[in-house]
Amino acid sequence: NAGVTQTPKFQVLKTGQSMTLQCAQDMNHEYMSWYRQDPGMGLRLIHYSVGAGITDQGEVPNGYNVSRSTTEDFPLRLLSAAPSQTSVYFCASSLTSGKGDTQYFGPGTRLTVL
Amino acid sequence: TQLLEQSPQFLSIQEGENLTVYCNSSSVFSSLQWYRQEPGEGPVLLVTVVTGGEVKKLKRLTFQFGDARKDSSLHITAAQPGDTGLYLCAGQSYTSGTYKYIFGTGTRLKVLA
Fold it and tell me: Cα dist. B77→B16, B18, B20, B71 in Å?
């Protein structure tokens, strides 16, 4: 059981470039989400999915797209990177989106946009 | 917009001391979780509390959910260097047809040997 995996671990982009952050889980979890973590601001929800084919926006969705074609994978796309998107990105999953469900986090992707 | 404020933001103490970290909001939460995060890793769940007034203990860590389910505290007894890390609280609320989490700003703890 690998849990939640994320790739790449580090990435440097130039302003305007696009890229996809990968996230996969092997626990058959319905609920997956993407957060960004910035100093002094905790984790902020970008997008989430309650199951394959269903996605919705979180607190800070602008500049990011997601899709959920399978239960296992939940990629995050940056369409045109901006310096304000420099952050550490975490993917998380939980069995359901129910009350008190445990979220399992991946190791994170540290993204720098120049 | 729901906010979760944690205090203190930073804490540096000697091994063996006790400490308390607070997590406060003006919003009511369905549940509240505490996580610990180490450098270069994702947060790891320590505990979930769901009932107002609930107290849970995990070895030297004691977690309490406020009676009104708006606040929580984490108390560590006889801190050890292995307790060093970033502690995050996360409040869960039901909005737009699903439960979502809001994270606090974090408390960075350093325990000196």
Answer: 8, 5, 9, 20
Per-residue pLDDT tens listing for chain B (113 residues): 668 999 999 999 999 999 999 999 999 999 999 999 998 899 999 999 999 999 999 999 999 999 999 999 999 999 999 999 999 999 998 887 888 899 998 999 999 99
- Is there a contact between B105 and B7 (Cβ–Cβ < 8 Å)? no
Q: What is the largest CA-CA distance in chain B?
A: 47
B99 part of contact set with chain A, CB < 8 Å: yes
Judged by CB atoms closer than 8 Å, whether chains meet at B100 and A48 is answered as yes
How far is B31 from B56, CA to CA, in rounded Å? 13
Residue B95 has a pLDDT of: 81
Q: Does residue A8 have a cis bond before it (omega within 30 degrees)?
A: yes
Six token digits for residue B12: 């540096």
Burial class from Cβ neighbours inside 10 Å (0-12, 13-18, 19+) for residue A57 reads middle
Q: Does A98 touch chain B (CB under 8 A)?
A: yes
Sign of CA dihedral B43, B49, B55, B57: negative
Which residues 41-80 of B have a C-beta within 8 angstroms of A? Answer: 41-45, 48, 50
* DSSP string for B2-50: ---EEE-SEEEEETT--EEEEEE-SS--SEEEEEEE-TTS--EEEEEE-
Share of residues in chain A with pLDDT > 70 (%): 99
CA B50 to CA B29: how far, in whole Å?
A: 8
